[in-house]
Amino acid sequence: MSKPLILVSNDDGITSKGIRVLVSVMKKIGDVVVVAPDSPQSGMGHAITIGETLRLYEEDIFEDVLAFKSSGTPADCVKLAKHYVLKDRTPDLVVSGINHGSNTSISVLYSGTMSAAIEGALEGLPSIGFSLCDYSSKADFSHLEEWVEKIALQVLERGIAKGVALNVNFPPKRNESIKGIKICRQADAKWQEEFAERYDPTGRKYFWMAGNFVNFDKGEDNDEWAIANNYISIVPCQYDLTAHHAITQINKDWDWDKLK
Amino acid sequence: MSKPLILVSNDDGITSKGIRVLVSVMKKIGDVVVVAPDSPQSGMGHAITIGETLRLYEEDIFEDVLAFKSSGTPADCVKLAKHYVLKDRTPDLVVSGINHGSNTSISVLYSGTMSAAIEGALEGLPSIGFSLCDYSSKADFSHLEEWVEKIALQVLERGIAKGVALNVNFPPKRNESIKGIKICRQADAKWQEEFAERYDPTGRKYFWMAGNFVNFDKGEDNDEWAIANNYISIVPCQYDLTAHHAITQINKDWDWDKLK
């Protein structure tokens, strides 16, 4: 059997530590092609490049791996990979990350890492976003490698439901080793923003956005609980945003005489 | 009863035609505050500004309306409005748009218009994104005004379920008038990308992303069908991306002996 073709992208940029770890693990499993942003793209959400040009350059950065850096967003990178770089070859797996920082709970909405994975799912490809819940500049990725490999192999073997991408978050390295995997729902939480005001040398005001993460969720079946309890969280994410329950409710509750 | 407080944002920028129409309608209903991007932000998805500064300037652009332009994304604008501009005042309604172009189906993922509305929903506020399915530079917004007003009034009266924002798309102006409103699900469709290659004056390659919209959906309960048949589509969208059906399936299907 030929080796699986694995497309790797991320949002921290092609020189980041997380993508190096991800590429090294994927090389054990299959033929790897990388298309990743040429600079960090954190917080890009599902942005794409419209009305501006895109660059794409081959970059000899990973040993024995065909790799390209692009000026585009993570979602752009997956589109470029699928429809330009690979064209007639279909990846067996799309992996994104390993993000340096958490993408649990509501952070999935703002996550460039997950937008690359969701873009893969949109193309009908089994797709996984990996993130490490550790913001330290010296974050240790070594405890993840065996788990990244196991999860990727399992997805290659069993596939993922249509319209779904996996959001995998790893707990930070702790004294106790990782307890295992929990398949979770997205926790009910939000970022509570605060804006720090500053003045530039010309006296004009500017702002830094900062925020505190607020977790409203008391359950034990969500990703925040899993990470806090030293489990790997896997949330299956869908790109059909329809709130089906709300369709019935609106049809029933609204005053349709006023809406003619 | 005091007038409702209405926050207006968009992704086409504060000088666009669509936001002028939206502000003029909202002024009939309530007290309006605008915080919108200082330049077009189409395709920004749910991007936010991390690690870079934000500007926010008051702009006397709409008669008798407090308005600010920001260097940030649509999601940034709603965060700035809620946590800085309005601070102790809570909007009764957040409206975004009217986007110049469709945000039906999968386009919701890439939509800056909808990211502003979803950000509003995240803040627990009734939130609506409005878009006109007409890309023509001379797009006529006049047939929308009565409908925008009716929908906004209905939402102020009846509210929206927690965790849900409304994605409202209007058909383009046609000879036949709009038939009414359909509460829909997001159509199963995608953009099929093509990349046009060009060379700059120094001989280096660059790309333009282009794409064809491909609709796989044969149903009549989705937003694409509604627009094609001259109805206004309203898709209730949720920010909990969890594919709940897939949780059960993964727990059952995966080979857990290999994942210890």
Task: Please explain how this structure is put together.
Chains A, B: A divalent metal cation binds at residues 11-12, 42, 99. Chains A, B: This is 5'-nucleotidase SurE. Chains A, B: Its cofactor is a divalent metal cation; Mg(2+). Chains A, B: GO terms for molecular function: 5'-nucleotidase activity; metal ion binding; nucleotide binding. Chains A, B: It is found in: Cytoplasm. Two copies of one chain form a homodimer. In chain A, β3 (56-58) and β4 form a beta hairpin. The first copy, chain A, has helices at 17-29, 74-85, 112-122, 145-158, 223-228, 244-253, and strands at 5-9, 31-37, 56-58, 66-70, 93-100, 127-132, 164-170, 181-183, 189-199, 205-215, 232-238. Chain A starts with a strand and ends in a 7-residue tail after the last helix. Chain A contains six helices and eleven strands. In chain A, the strands form two sheets. In chain A, strands 3-4-2-1-5-6-7-11-8 form a nine-stranded mixed β-sheet, sandwiched between helices. The first copy, chain A, has a single domain (5-187, 218-259), classed as 3-Layer(aba) Sandwich (Stationary-phase Survival Protein Sure Homolog, Chain: A). The mean pLDDT of chain A is 95. Chain A has 260 residues and is an alpha/beta fold. At the A-B interface, α2, α3, α4, β9 and β10 of A face α2, α3, α4, β9 and β10 of B.
